[in-house]
Structure formats: structure tokens, C-alpha cells
Design brief:
Blueprint: E1 2-7, H1 15-30, E2 35-39, H2 45-52, E3 59-62, E4 65-69, E5 72-76, E6 81-83, E7 86-88, E8 94-99, E9 104-109, H3 120-143
Helix pairs in contact: 1-3
């Protein structure tokens, strides 16, 4: 399963947060992903819940929680996502596409692309496709 991992900076009140939230909204509307994991250090849960109400088929999990996914134990804290020997730290303006089966992930930098100059759906689609190709290639190497 693939999930998106972010921090709560997407839900702030600054112009930067609003821009990142818009890009997240586009990503969620255009991608086949159906789950988001959020390290929440300072945002009210109601704010995050309000954002996700428009996405009926996308669920989310907020920190702090310990849970099982793909027969692995995951720990989602306010500052990281951990499983076995990996620890992913969120960075403002980025998200991680995480393969929960192979424990591989790719960080995507949303703040590198000015909103006015790019087709966000194309950027997100290409970033996800690249990450999926890399992860699939790694799976094939592991089988060999």
C-alpha cells in the first residue's frame, strides 16, 4: 500500500501553509492514493478533520499512534514516522510517498514549484509515477 506522509504545517494560517494546502488538495484529487499519515505537533484536530471532509474516499491518521499496516508495526509521532529500522522526519513544504510493504519512500518537494508557473496535476502525477517506478524497480531487484 502507498500512503502520503506529511506534517501539520499544511494546516497553518500563513500564506505558505495555504499554498501547500492547495497543492495537497490538488494531489489528493488527482492521485489514486487513499490514505494520509500526519505528524501533528500543533494543529487542532478539528482543523485537519475539516480539510479531509471534502475527500470522502481518503482516510487519514494523526499522531501519536502505534498501529499495524502490511503486517508491520508503525509508530506515528508528532515528529516522525517509524517502522523497523527506518525513521522518516517530515519537512515543511514536502510530503513522502511511502510504500508500506517495502519500507521505501520518496520525498517530494512541493515548494519548488511556483503555483502560477506550473500545472500542479502534471507535476504531482509525474512525481508519483517516478516514485512508483523507482520502488517497483527496487522490488524487482529484491526478487532477483
Amino acid at each position: 500500500m502507498f500512503v502520503i506522509y506529511i506534517d501539520d504545517s499544511f494546516f497553518g494560517t500563513s500564506d505558505f501553509s495555504r499554498d501547500m494546502r492547495y497543492k495537497l488538495r490538488v494531489l489528493l484529487n488527482e492521485s489514486p492514493l487513499d490514505h494520509v499519515w500526519i505528524s501533528n505537533a500543533r494543529t487542532k484536530s478539528e482543523t485537519i478533520e475539516r480539510f479531509f471532509k471534502e475527500f470522502e474516499d481518503i482516510s487519514y491518521t494523526e499522531s501519536t499512534v502505534r498501529f499495524m499496516q502490511d503486517q508491520k508495526e508503525w509508530v506515528l509521532t508528532n515528529t516522525s514516522l517509524q517502522c523497523e529500522d527506518i525513521c522518516i522526519r517530515p519537512f515543511s513544504g514536502t510530503y513522502c510517498l511511502v510504500d508500506t510493504e517495502t519500507l521505501q519512500y520518496e520525498r517530494i518537494y512541493l515548494d519548488l514549484f511556483p503555483q502560477e508557473e506550473t500545472d500542479l496535476a502534471t507535476i504531482f502525477t509525474e512525481a508519483i509515477q517516478d516514485a512508483l517506478r523507482k520502488i517497483s524497480g527496487s522490488k524487482e531487484k529484491m526478487k532477483s
